[in-house]
């Protein structure tokens, strides 16, 4: 199962990097979102996919699942949501200022503000 998820992570990284390298700001935002989903899956896979035991049962549990990867993924989800919302606001302001979301056209333009 880890090999299948690792292949999916590689595909998500490839698609995310391809979208980030485009000239359209909307594609860049979508690329960062896809890349962050790849990171979430990577953290989950590297933490080990264990089955059967809950995270913590008590001090005398025979087996348990490590809750640290799940906590790291939850933190990464919150951070990626904040970064995505910041990128959306930044793209909206850039579109309002320059009238386009093409990065090549914005490069030489000067804002009126």
TrEMBL record:
It is a multi-pass membrane protein. InterPro entries: CPA3_antiporter_subunitC, NUOK/Mnh_C1-like. This is Na(+)/H(+) antiporter subunit C. Its main location: membrane. It comes from the Bacteria. The chain crosses the membrane at residues 6-21, 28-49, 69-92. Gene3D superfamilies: 1.10.287.3510. It holds the Pfam family Oxidored_q2. Belongs to the CPA3 antiporters (TC 2.A.63) subunit C family. GO terms for cellular component: plasma membrane. It is found in: Cell membrane. Keywords: Cell membrane, Membrane, Transmembrane, Transmembrane helix. It comes from Halalkalibacter suaedae.
């Amino acid at each position: 199962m880890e090999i299948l998820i690792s292949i999916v992570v590689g595909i998500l990284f490839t698609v995310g990097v391809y979208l980030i390298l485009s000239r359209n700001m909307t594609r860049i935002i979508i690329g960062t979102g896809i890349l962050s989903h790849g990171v979430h899956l990577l953290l989950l896979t590297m933490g080990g996919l264990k089955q059967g035991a809950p995270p913590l049962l008590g001090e005398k549990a025979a087996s348990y699942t490590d809750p640290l990867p799940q906590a790291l993924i939850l933190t990464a989800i919150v951070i990626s949501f904040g970064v995505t919302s910041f990128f959306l606001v930044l793209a909206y302001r850039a579109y309002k200022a320059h009238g386009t979301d093409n990065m090549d056209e914005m490069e030489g333009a000067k804002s009126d503000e």
